[in-house]
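Batch manifest, entry 17 of 40.
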Amino acid sequence: MDMSNDTAIKIATLQAKLNKKLGPEYISQRPGPGGGPKLTYAEGWKIINIANEVFGFNGWSSQIINMTTDYMDYNEESKRCNVGVSCIVRVTLSYGVFHEDVGYGTAENAKGKAQAIDKSKKEAVTDAVKRALRNFGSLLGNCLYDKSYTQEITKIKVPPVSTPHSAGNDSELKLI
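Output type: structure tokens
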């Protein structure tokens, strides 16, 4: 397949962006399951903002391929509900390239079924979108699977990310 020089330059430029790693201001930590080691992650809104910055707001899209409610338990005594949902999402770039991945969402001890279902579905979709986007490169979260990188980057203390809207300026995406 022959490609024009302009196309080759665009692809190389995009790949160079995607090969960069997230800066510490994009990374969060939370306690692991059962009090285990901390889990390092990037919040969904931050990854979506980066995807919009890299691909353009209209340069990518996501589509739910499948969503399954894996369990729904209702306790008559406590009137509380637990729900687990799995979701497969496809993220497609304007070029036609796509990646799919699975996400999972739960709601534990919710006051009602609707609230539990709503929360778990949203969580599953966000998780699946993040996981699909990470397949495009380090900048979209794949670097968080490199344990030596996460050990070093989490040592750096920085103020939280401010969006261009809240900062009142045209701040640039900070990459390392």
